Amino acid sequence: MHARPAPAIVLSPAVSLPAGERELRIDLFRGLALWLIFIDHMSPDLLTWFTIRSYGFSDAAEIFIFISGYTAAFVYGRIMREAGFVIASARILRRAWQIYVANVFLFTIFFAEIVYAARSFNNPLYSDEMGVNDFLKHPNVAIVQALLLRFRLLNMDVLPLYVLLMFFLPWILRLMQWRADVTLALSVGLYGLAWKYDLYLTSYPNGFWAFNPFFWQLLFVFGAWCALGGARRMSRLILSPVTQWIAIGYLLAAFSVTMTWYFPQLGFLMPRRLEQWIYPISKTDLDVLRFAHFLALAAIAVRLVPPGWPGLKSPWLRPLILCGQHSLEIFCLGVFLAFVGYFILIESSAGLGLHFLAAFFGVLIMTAVAWLNTWYKRSDRESRSRTREFGGNADIVGGG
User: Fold this and answer.
1) Exposed, middle or buried, 227 (CB in 10 Å: 0-12/13-18/19+)?
2) What's the CA angle centered on 331, arms 34 and 45, to 5 degrees?
3) Ranges of each domain in the chain
4) How far apart are CA 82 and CA 11, in angstroms?
5) What is the mean pLDDT of residues 259-269?
6) Minimal CA–CA distance to 58: which of 250, 242, 213?
7) What are phi and psi for residue 208, nearest 5 degrees?
8) Hey, which of 139, 187, 228, 324 would disulfide with 30, CB 3.0 to 4.6 Å?
9) In whole angstroms, how far apart are CA 208 and each of 23, 203, 243, 335?
10) What is the per-residue pLDDT for 15?
11) Mean pLDDT score of the chain, rounded to an integer?
C-alpha cells in the first residue's frame, strides 16, 4: 500500500471580510506609521519625543514593513488561490514595478528639492546630510546606481526594500501554500544565517543598505504569515492575560533602557553586563530586541483595537485611515514634505510651536491628498458603472 501524499494547505485569511470590504484596522495603523515616519524625518531632534521612536527599541518602520507584508499577502494570496500562481505573480510584479517607478520619480523630485535649497540659501548642510554630494561627484555613474537601487538619498531607504520584498512575494506565497509554518521557519533561518555570516547588500558609493533585506525580510514574511491564518491561530495566545502582561513588562523595560540614552543620570538602571549583552541594538540588521519590541506593541494593539472596534467609524480617525489606504502616494508625499518642513525649521531656528505647526500642516496636506485620491477612485468607479449600464441599455435598445 502506498502512502498518500500530504495535501497542500489552502490558506485562509486571518480575518473574514465580505467581498470588497477593507480591514480598517490595517489602514489605521498603516496611516499612523506614515504620519510617524513623516514627523520623525521632519523633526528628528524635537517632535520625536511625541512619537514611539523615543520610547522603545522599534519605530514606525517596523509597523510599515509588517503591514506591507500583511496587506500584500492578504490581497495577492486571495488572487493566487482563485486565479493561480501565474496571474497572481503578474499582478504582484506589476505592483513591484509601480513601487520602483515611484522610487525613481521620488528620487528625481527629492534630489531637485535638496539641490535648490542648498544653492538658493548657500547652505551645504542639506546636500551633505542628504547625500547629494556623492551624486554630484559622478552623476553619470550615480544615476545608474540609483536605477539599480544602490544609490539613495536620505529618508528614501524603505522603498528599495519594499521593491525587493515585493519581487520575491510570489515565491513566498507559493511556499506558504505548500507549508506556511515551514516558510516562516525558512525566513527565520535566513535571518540567522545573515546574522552568522554578516550578509548584506552594498550601496553606492560605499557602505550598505540602511535596511538590510536579509534581516528585514523576516518582518515582511511574518506579516504575510499572520495574514494567511497565522494571526487567527495565535489569537488565543496573543489575547491571554499572561502574554499581555509579558508585553507590558517588556515595553516598560525597553522604555527604561531608552531613557538612559537621553538622560545619562539614569545610567544606574543599566548594569554593565546588560549593556554588553544588548548593545548595539541595530536598526539596519533588525535586532532581535527591536523585533520583540514590535511584537509587544502589536500584542497590545490587537487587544485595544479588536475586529469591529466602533472607533474605526469615528470621523477623528478617518484621516489616518484615508492615508493608510493610499500608502505609496502618501509615503512619497511625506518624504517630500518632511524635507520642506525640515528646511523651514532649520532656516527659521524654529521653536516648539513652529515645529508643531509644520507637523500639523504636513499631516493636513497628506490627508487632503489621500481624500482627493479616494474621491478620484470613487468617481472612476461610478463612471465605469454608468458606462456599463448605458452600454447595456444601448444593447437592449439596439437588439429590440
Assistant:
1) buried
2) 60
3) 25-47+309-377
4) 11
5) 87
6) 250
7) -150, 170
8) 324
9) 36, 5, 36, 21
10) 53
11) 88
State how far the Cα of 156 lies from the Cα of 61, in Å rounded to an integer. Answer: 12
State which amino acid sits at residue 183.
Answer: T
Q: Within 10 A of 64 (CB to CB), how many other CB atoms are there?
A: 23
pTM for this prediction: 0.89
What pLDDT is attached to residue 389?
Answer: 61
Please tell me the distance from the alpha carbon of residue 97 to that of residue 103, in angstroms, as a whole number: 10
Would the pLDDT of 332 be above 50? yes
d(CA 330, CA 38) in angstroms, rounded, equals 10
| DSSP reduced 3-state for 81 | helix
| Residue 155 grid coordinates | 529618508
CA distance 179 to 186: 11
Q: Which residues pair with 202 in a beta bridge?
A: 208
* End-to-end Cα spacing for the chain: 64
pLDDT of 11: 53
Q: Which of 325, 272, 388 is nearest to 24 (CA)?
A: 325
Q: Residue 400: pLDDT above 50?
A: no
DSSP string, 193-245: HHHHHT---B-SSSSB-SS-HHHHHHHHHHHHHIIIIIHHHHHHHHTSHHHHH
Give Cβ neighbours of residue 100 (< 8 Å, ≥ 6 apart): 149, 163
Q: What is the pLDDT of residue 1?
A: 42
3-class secondary structure per residue, 278-318: HCCCCCCCCCHHHHHHHHHHHHHHHHHCCCCCHHHHCCCCH
Percentage of residues in the chain having pLDDT higher than 70: 91
pLDDT at residue 274, rounded to an integer: 87
Find the angle CA(174)-CA(147)-CA(87) to the nearest 5 degrees: 25
Whether 390 shows a pLDDT value over 70: the answer reads no
For residues 77 and 99, give the distance between their C-alpha atoms in angstroms, rounded to a whole number: 19
Q: Residue 241 pLDDT more than 70?
A: yes
Q: How far apart are CA 321 and CA 327, in angstroms?
A: 10
Cell of 131: 547625500
**C-alpha torsion sign, points 237, 239, 241, 247:** positive
Long-range contacts of 238-243 (CB under 8 A, 24+ apart): 238/299, 238/302, 238/303, 239/302, 239/303, 243/299
